[in-house]
Specification:
four-stranded mixed sheet, Histidine-containing Protein, Chain: A, alpha/beta
Length: 224
């Protein structure tokens, strides 16, 4: 098992490996699988990139992200300017239905709201604005309300998880309650947890996924 120092070094190297983050000053601490990120970057995209890089490192169970976004004066925009760019970005993204997402901007922080029928549309809306200049953060409050009345079958969700080569579904359990799917069990990486969630979100008729999977790289070796 990795000790705290080894995990800290691995996360630091993973962050440095990302071209977008070569010049970014990001501090990393690690304790019992929990990684904390601190520092200052000049774009929200770099903040996301650092967090995603940390999540992909084997041994990371949770990420506490405290990175601050500060722009050069020349990059500063008014809330109105940012709002107009956000609306344009959403309109030009074919995955986001027109006039279904409302936007609020406060001190450079974007809040997205509305109702969509699929989670991929919700994710597309957020991804469309992540790289805009002047954005300090994004809160995605869009809710999912599927238009189909199909009954969600637990076996269908479990079969979808089993088909994926990128996750080990042997310790993933899916529970269906109405329009909600809850995932429990253990996976070996944060990537596998996210991937299991994405697969569950593709279920026809889904309104909510509660991803309670635990990330524990060493779980499968515990009984050896």
């Amino acid at each position: 098992m990795k000790n705290n120092s080894e995990l800290q070094t691995d996360v630091q190297n993973a962050i440095k490996w990302e071209p977008l983050l070569n010049a970014a000053e990001i501090g990393v601490t690690a304790k019992d699988g929990v990684v904390s990120l601190t520092g200052v970057v000049d774009s929200y995209a770099k903040k996301l990139e650092a967090e995603n890089a940390a999540k992909k490192v084997i041994g990371v169970k949770a990420v506490v992200e405290k990175i601050e976004v500060k722009f050069p004066n020349s990059w500063t925009k008014t809330n109105a300017e940012i709002a107009n760019e956000v609306l344009s970005a959403l309109k030009s993204n074919w995955s986001v239905p027109n006039d279904k997402v409302t936007v609020k901007v406060e001190n450079g922080w974007i809040t997205l709201e509305g109702e969509l029928t699929w989670n991929y549309q919700k994710e597309a809306a957020k991804n469309a604005v992540n790289f805009l200049t002047g954005v300090r953060g994004v809160t995605n409050n869009i809710t999912i309300k599927s238009e189909t009345n199909d009954t969600i079958e637990q076996l269908d969700v479990e079969k979808a998880l089993a088909r994926s080569w990128s996750i080990d579904d042997s310790d993933i359990h899916a529970k269906v309650s109405g329009k909600k799917v809850t995932l429990t069990g253990n996976v070996r990486s944060w990537y596998q947890k996210d991937e299991a969630g994405r697969i569950a979100w593709k279920t026809p008729g889904i309104w909510e996924v509660e991803n309670d999977l635990s990330v524990d790289y060493y779980h499968e070796y515990a009984n050896y």
